[in-house]
Amino acid sequence: MPNVTVVDHPLVQHKLSLMRDKARSTKGFRQLLHEIGMLLCYEVTRDLPIEMVEIETPLTTIKAPRIEGKKLVFAPILRAGLGFVDGMLELVPSARVAHIGLYRDPQTLTAVEYYFKAPEDVADRLVIVMDPMLATANSAIAAVERLKERGVSNLRFVCLLAAPEGIDKFHAHHPDVAIWTASVDSHLNDHGYIVPGLGDAGDRMFGTK
After folding, report:
1. Would residue 203 show up in a list of annotated catalytic residues for this protein?
2. Strands 127-130 and 73-78: what pairing?
3. What is the DSSP track for 98-157?
4. Measured between alpha carbons, how far is 164 from 57 in angstroms, rounded to an integer?
5. In Å, what is the CA distance from 48 to each residue of 6, 33, 166?
6. Are residues 139 and 67 in contact, defined by beta-carbon separation less than 8 angstroms?
7. To the nearest 10°, the Cα dihedral for 52, 54, 55, 59?
8. How confident is residue 20, by pLDDT bands cut at 50, 70 and 90?
């Protein structure tokens, strides 16, 4: 699929298989999401621009590479997107964090916003939007639209699982936003869940079901 990167690293695929297991404990699921978030962060930041700066080592002065520009922003879609944040911050501890509160109406499956908070200069930064599941894509579409309203033009989307229907719908609205995912699964069922999937990521992470 164009503008979609499936991260097929063996560690990512192994951890995803462990997460799919319905017998996985809440603690285990949460820990695996933390770990896989770090690995996905490594991939989505692979092509960040760098600049050469002068530094002094204990032996000499050299030109060395450093990430260029303002610090990036992680933008989890609440609540399940929070599962990615700590792992990603371990790799990029200086990143800013925006919060986008959306929930899926159980009848219409449309996204309803209840909270939004981002750095004042978010429009000047690379923003990585994250949510474990790209299913109907309604929440992802709404989150990116909200960020674009704030002037953000440099956006990427990271998810654990994606459905083909969600990818198609997301890119119909935001063809300029690339997607990174650990798997493109088979399809959505009648309730808007990804099949074979792993159930509701938020409920499994927080133990609310």
Report:
1. yes
2. parallel
3. -EEEEEE-TTT--EEEEEEE--TTGGGS-EEEE-SEESS-HHHHHHHHHHHHTT---EEE
4. 49
5. 18, 23, 26
6. no
7. 110
8. very high
**Which residue out of 5, 104, 110, 124 is catalytically annotated?**
104
Among 184, 185, 183, 198, which Cα is nearest to 29's? 198
Q: In the prediction, which pLDDT does 109 show? A: 66
How far apart, in Å, are the Cα atoms of 7 and each of 21, 42, 55, 74, 100? 20, 10, 34, 19, 25
Cα distance between residue 70 and residue 95, in whole Å: 9
- The residue among 202 and 51 whose pLDDT is bigger is 51
| 4-206 topology per CATH | Rossmann fold (3.40.50)
Cα–Cα distance, 116 to 97 (Å, whole number): 11
Structure tokens at 57: 């080592």
Q: Is there a catalytic annotation at residue 200?
A: yes
Q: Is the pLDDT of residue 75 over 70?
A: yes
Q: Which residue ranges make up each domain of the chain?
A: 4-206
Strand ranges for the chain from DSSP E: 4-6, 50-56, 61-67, 73-78, 96-97, 99-104, 111-117, 127-130, 133-134, 155-162, 178-184, 187-188, 194-195
Q: 3-class DSSP state for residue 55?
A: strand
